[in-house]
């Protein structure tokens, strides 16, 4: 039986006195964490929660978030980590979808959410758990987290668990309006722990920094593996370059997961060289490949291994990895193209790239990425039809478009939904965006298809310019014409101050398309 | 879904042209092996076999044995690797127990088995598959393996598989008369592949030598992991010191699994220093710890890492590992006691040591080893009661007696059934044996309990003396008295020429007890 509790119970047995968490000035040992997790589990059960009930968590990174991951699991409950960047609409949808009995939130979040608390109750939330130090003011009607722990038994409740039981519901912003709750089981997350162990060669890790948000599996990919290895979790409440650099120095951090934008921010941070970053052994990054120049610079500044992971919540999340050796080889052999790939399928996970008829495409041809393995989700909460559609034929259909090279490296080309069909030709939006990014005045760019009487869809670029820089529509179109086939060149360019973004800083082209669809007053995108 | 076929399909996709098998002068590439495995699967299916049917294999080590492991799996059949050391009684029992439709055997085995072929048919075997080169004489009525492959389709049949489907039945000589068929599934063996990958740090392995018999999971612990890593399998037909040393030199072998007796034989082999063993990176050994002096000598001669695994067929098989670091640390820090332990539980497997009431014992106390994990067998074939007994409470009851030390190292003390209760005191037979082994004239020793009117059981030592050496009963008893508490000293010593042994060279005390039970004419042991 695959039981995710094993990732905590094992090091508790092996190294009970060793530190497991460093949060601000607090240090917890494995036996202390185990006791707090057991108390939390018993405390939640004492509130009347039953196996399978959901516990929503909305919080910045801290040791209590880690305790909540384990505490819900040890109580047989399902955690629902919510995105701190969500708007009211998304919260309302997710909460009415999963109906958590308990909603855990910290002081920072509470300040923002105060006006809506009554509405949350209306959505079925019965209890609020306030995450904070004992002495802090606990809002009326809320349960103090530390008090709940104090009053509960310190014994592991050791409930019966089946490997297909839910550990969590992870909401993912789909391309279609409402977020979907990805159901991940003990088996899914335990198998990802094995996969991360092997693919990222977790072994000499001592201290892992939670710098990316803990509600997201980009950071969560490593969480259970770090514990399993008897490592230490360090935390910064939210990503902030100065805070991250300070934490690396203070806690002697050995590994961290970042998204490329965050690496960028660290590189651009004035005085990055003031910090002692010599403890760093590896930076894992994901969500997207990095521009080669930035990567080279990062490797120079941070002087550690770089590993890129590609995956998605539905795969719990790891699918492919561009290993540290791949990075070194690419630079040593002058084959930098590999650095723009997502790496190769990790051991344990099968990947196919197929055409519209479900046939494997040849090397260099583009198709949809399908994934199979013990890590693939049980399904979407409350969505049997979308589950069946996504998992048809026993493979998870990612809607990512990609191609293989001769050596089995996978290149993500675009989201299937972001592909534009214009005048009968397929255009991958990312290809056009890459050209736009090369223009010195462009800070951010998103390319979408908009309704057009002649072309069905016409290519539109939506661009944010760098501060103090300028460029005209004609100039950018001319720039594209120099680097792209004529049919790939945008027909129009709009300039905006900001692009819509998701939890990890990804530009949400779906939201953009929706805006333009409304603006054009059409059902077609 | 956990699918053991993945261990072959993955490297076929990643490195199709690389070698996977070296057997005599033959080298097979991954795509060649994949084709042969697919042909074998289709060939077996063309004989009318259906999902779940058993295929018995009785053969010395060779690439065809590897093909049979994969070929049966790709056809949805269950392999039943039989022990080449078995006698007629055990064969008869196992075959009538599992009723294989096909019996695969090689020329060497055939020579021994010829007189019994008709009786095998009587036991339900319908077809015989003769493993040999095409040109060799195939006995009448038998199917030539190579011809079967030639006539079958080279396409992977890609049948539907469930992770709980059987991959094989592995007969294990229990302590109670007849062997039991351990049912191992895709999930069990795939999880062991993950475990071996992590615990043995399989990564830089290139060439693994099958020196121990392939029908046994001591060797099989690494088989699927080697393939999964894109490594090379090299083979010697059976363990022979000269052949093994030659093979290491010839194939530039990097890793091998041996049992301590085999390491001993290699060390004692005249002219071991003539061979170029510089390619060796690690020796995995198991079935029992090694005497510290021999281990030190082995580390000096082979100049590579040593890793000890403890496990059993029911656990597919790995449970604990004494890592290479453990070995180095023990020697560097002068803490050689650790070398007599079985190491610590591997990541993914839970181990408890419990008393007769099922309570965890404290450090230093002896109890039975219980094991839980995704690697634990589905059960014993045709034996629901013994299955329930062995797996009661969700834990596999190993019948191994052991104790923990403060650092979580596990020391196997004895088999539960080998423990002697004499005058109300527990005596662990191995402790007495270890003392006997220290006597210069003793080659082998087995200590058992025999019926006794006063003591219920009295301690008897059965001893094989070294050639040219002599010792009397009184002398050995006196030797024991100097090193053991009085109640642990044997009451009598018998001298024999040979002790009964199992497939891996383990002394079968169960057989010995049975002999004495008959001799004493009692039902008590």
3D structure, described in words:
Two copies of one chain form a homodimer. Chain A is built from 17 helices and 26 strands. In chain A, strand 3 (54-58), helix 3 and strand 4 form a beta-alpha-beta unit. In chain A, the strands form six sheets. Chain A has a nine-stranded mixed β-sheet with strand order 2-1-11-10-12-13-14-15-16, with helices on both faces. Chain A is an alpha/beta fold and 525 residues long. Chain A has two domains: 6-400, ANL, N-terminal domain (Rossmann fold); 419-520, GMP Synthetase, Chain A, domain 3. Chains A and B meet through helix 1, helix 8 and strand 16 of A and helix 1, helix 8 and strand 16 of B.
């Amino acid at each position: 039986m695959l039981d995710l509790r094993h990732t905590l119970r094992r090091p508790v047995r092996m190294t009970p006195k060793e530190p497991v968490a460093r949060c601000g000035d607090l240090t917890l040992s494995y036996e202390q964490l185990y006791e707090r997790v057991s108390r939390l589990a018993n405390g939640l059960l004492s509130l009347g929660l039953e196996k399978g009930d959901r516990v929503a968590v909305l919080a910045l990174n801290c040791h209590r978030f880690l305790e909540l991951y384990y505490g819900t699991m040890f109580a047989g409950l399902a955690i629902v980590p919510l995105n701190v960047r969500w708007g009211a609409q998304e919260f309302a949808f997710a909460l009415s979808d999963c109906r958590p009995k308990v909603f855990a939130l910290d002081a920072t979040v509470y300040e923002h959410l105060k006006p809506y608390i009554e509405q949350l109750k209306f959505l079925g939330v019965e209890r609020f758990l306030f995450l904070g130090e004992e002495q802090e003011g606990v809002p009326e009607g809320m349960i103090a987290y530390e008090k709940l722990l104090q009053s509960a038994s310190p014994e592991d409740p050791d409930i019966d668990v089946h490997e297909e039981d839910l550990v969590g519901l992870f909401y993912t912003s789909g391309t279609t309006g409402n977020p979907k709750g990805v159901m991940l089981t003990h088996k899914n997350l335990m198998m990802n722990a094995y996969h991360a162990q092997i693919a990222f060669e977790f072994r000499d890790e001592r201290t892992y920094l939670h710098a990316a948000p803990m509600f997201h599996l980009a950071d969560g990919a490593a969480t259970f593996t770090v514990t399993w290895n008897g490592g230490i979790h360090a935390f910064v409440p939210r990503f902030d370059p100065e805070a991250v650099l300070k934490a690396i120095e203070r806690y002697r951090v050995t590994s961290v997961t970042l998204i490329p934008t965050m690496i960028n921010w660290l590189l651009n941070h004035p005085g990055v060289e003031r910090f002692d970053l010599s403890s760093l052994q590896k930076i894992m990054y994901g969500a997207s490949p990095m521009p080669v120049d930035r990567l080279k610079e990062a490797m120079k500044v941070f002087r550690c291994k770089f590993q890129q992971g590609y995956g998605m919540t539905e795969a719990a999340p790891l699918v492919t990895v561009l290993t540290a050796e791949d990075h070194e080889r690419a630079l040593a052999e002058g084959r930098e193209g590999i650095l723009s790939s997502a790496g190769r399928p990790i051991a344990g996970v099968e990947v196919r790239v197929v055409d519209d008829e479900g046939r494997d495409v040849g090397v260099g041809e583009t198709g949809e990425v399908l994934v199979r393995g013990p890590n693939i989700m049980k399904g979407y909460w409350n969505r049997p039809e979308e589950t069946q559609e996504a998992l048809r034929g026993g493979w998870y259909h990612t809607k990512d478009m990609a191609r293989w090279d001769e050596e089995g490296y996978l290149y993500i080309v675009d989201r299937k939904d972001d592909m534009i069909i214009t005048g009968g030709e397929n255009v991958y939006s990312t290809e056009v965006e890459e050209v736009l990014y090369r223009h010195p005045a462009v800070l951010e760019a998103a390319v979408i298809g908009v309704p057009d009487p002649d072309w069905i869809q016409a290519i539109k670029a939506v661009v944010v310019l760098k501060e103090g820089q300028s460029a005209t529509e004609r100039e950018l179109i001319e720039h594209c014409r120099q680097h792209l086939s004529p049919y790939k060149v945008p027909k129009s360019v709009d300039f905006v101050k900001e692009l819509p973004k998701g939890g990890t800083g990804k530009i949400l082209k779906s939201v953009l398309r929706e805006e333009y669809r409304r603006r054009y007053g059409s059902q077609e995108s």
